[in-house]
Every structure is written in structure tokens, then in C-alpha cells.
Write a structure and sequence with these properties.
- This protein is mainly α and 69 residues long.
- The protein has one domain.
- 72% of the residues lie in helices and 0% in strands.
- The chain contains 2 helices and no strands.
- The chain starts with a helix and ends in an 8-residue tail after the last helix.
Length: 69
């Protein structure tokens, strides 16, 4: 894996994990304030889709150089 690709993928993983932490904290705060969650079953599907996207990047882009546009 090239260094640029590894750094970029590492950044993406850290970003997504931090988003999960923030989302969980926000959900708990809103529910405690009386909010009602609508269709919570969609959330695991979205997390799975993002996980699959990152895994595909690792699988198909591990040996590609980072080329900013």
C-alpha cells in the first residue's frame, strides 16, 4: 500500500468512527430531551454501506497513488 493511500484510508476510517461516536451522543441527547426516533432500522444499513465502501476502497485502491484533482 502506498503511503498516500494508507494515510487517506486511515483518515477515512477515523472520520467515520468519530461520526459514529458523535451520532450516538447526539441521539442519546435528543432522546433524553423527548425526541422520537423514526425508522431506526435504517441506521445499521447506512453503517454497513459506509463500511462496505471503505472495505472496497481498501480492496481495490490499496495500490493506487493518491491523485488530487
Amino acid at each position: 500500500m502506498t503511503t498516500g493511500a494508507a494515510l487517506f484510508l486511515g483518515f477515512l476510517v477515523l472520520q467515520r468512527l468519530s461520526e459514529l461516536v458523535i451520532a450516538r451522543r447526539n441521539t442519546a441527547r435528543l432522546l433524553a430531551a423527548g425526541a422520537r426516533e423514526v425508522a431506526p432500522g435504517h441506521y445499521p444499513v447506512i453503517v454497513a454501506m459506509h463500511t462496505a465502501w471503505i472495505l472496497c476502497l481498501m480492496l481495490f485502491g490499496y495500490d493506487e497513488s493518491v491523485r488530487p484533482i
